[in-house]
Write a structure and sequence with these properties.
single chain; alpha+beta; seven-stranded mixed β-sheet; 53% helix; globular; Acyl_CoA_acyltransferase
Length: 530
Amino acid sequence: MLDDVHGEADLGGLVLPDAPILIASRRPLPAYRSWNPAGPVATVEVGPWPDDRISALLGGAPASGPEYHDNVLRLAGGNPLLAIALSRTPLTLPGLEAPGAMADGAARQVLDRLAGEAAGIDQALLLVAAVGQCDEDLLVQLGQGPAFAGLLGSSVIIPLAHGLAVVEPFRTVFDLALRWRAPVSYQTALTLAAAHHTRLLSTDPDRAARSDRVVQSLFLTVGGGVRSMFAPVTAPVHIRPARAEDERDLGRLIRLRSTRGDIDPRQSERQNIAWLHELPEGVHVVCDEEDRPVGMTGIVPITDHTVSTLEPVLQQHAETAAAGGVFLGTALYDERYPAARTALFRFIIATSFQYGRLVISTPTSEYQQVSTRLGFHAHGPLRHDVFGGPLPTQVYSQSFTTEALSGWLDRLRGPRLAPVLPDDTQWAIGHLREALEHLDRPLRLARSPLLAVVGDPATLRDLLRGGIRDLANSTIPAEAEAGQILTLYYLDRTGGHEFIAHRLHLSRATYYRRLNQGLEQLTRPLLAMT
């Protein structure tokens, strides 16, 4: 058995014996250019371990109570390497059981193991995990453009529709590690990425691609548990229309959902089964690699044919159906398959985008919270509840037309995101100096964290040039001197600081005082924009 094949170099000098052999590798051996076996090869993918097996693996690991153990299971996602790395975190961070600290310790261990695949990509991996899908242009804005080629060679990276993504569960761990270790850098990355995808949303001619941009924008904009619903799907799941032979699996999913405690099991099963029989064309299933349903949704176009069936779950809010769109009646998933949940909600958003509008009637606290967090229009509760749960069934709607999307995403992004720049003038001045040094170099300017509030390099350049011009034209002598200094040093490139101080007949102390005053003046509008 060989268990250390992790790259092309490992295969270069490999001499295989004339006997059956088991080779463990981070990716399928046929993916390597130098792989040229003499005989037949069978590839077996090792899937996630169940929680009880992970718990057994951690039997001798240091632990600090049930909360610590639950965090390890949740973050490991069935991956034994991550589970071991997470379990070692208390050894290097005594007394710290916060998930962020655990993720940071585990991420450093995993990145050390990945170092042999490509050098200098650690920070890029963390940033790609945070932003979900990352193309090279976005990576340049994040200051990691040269790392793109190296990322392509990493075993934890896969290509998706809009760039590279980190596979789960590594994405979740890396994302949490960066959020805990560098919260300002993390928030800046999300804001830059959201602006990047929103900018491309209106230019992409393909409807499916635009829909995926919307989901990506939601992933970058909303917070808490709702955010994970829109994470990139990196596991091998697929969605298809339900078939007659799926009936047993659909029944299993309905029963699983009915036992969560926030709805009446019998009424819930009755309502979902009625949905399956009355509107079968709207039922789609999320399937695993073996095509076994692990999630399902009932979402149908609102038409004259379907509106009468929807009346019991809309009642006095039936007028919400008059504007058309699609109606979401159910969304169920097996909690052991997080990718099923993500794929399910991506499909719901894509279908809503296709028809331009979504109407929801939901009795569950989970989906009511999601609808509220996403800023959907709340129409109110049903007059006569048909689900019998502790919460009244609520009706929501949301427009998904191209014209409405920008305003909706802006509202979600607005006050709910924490300020990207801290109220720290010295911090801002440091990045302002860097931006002024590269005013005429768009690629370098594109890496500035200040883009998080101004949007793009051209806007930042115009803002700084205009600010310097206003200072130079000020009627206040000190401001005018500051504007002259900034003009001569950064715009005209006249010479060094001592040369300019001599030219303006200023003492060294006065020169630097005016220079710093000018830089502080330029930062004020930037900080105000946050």
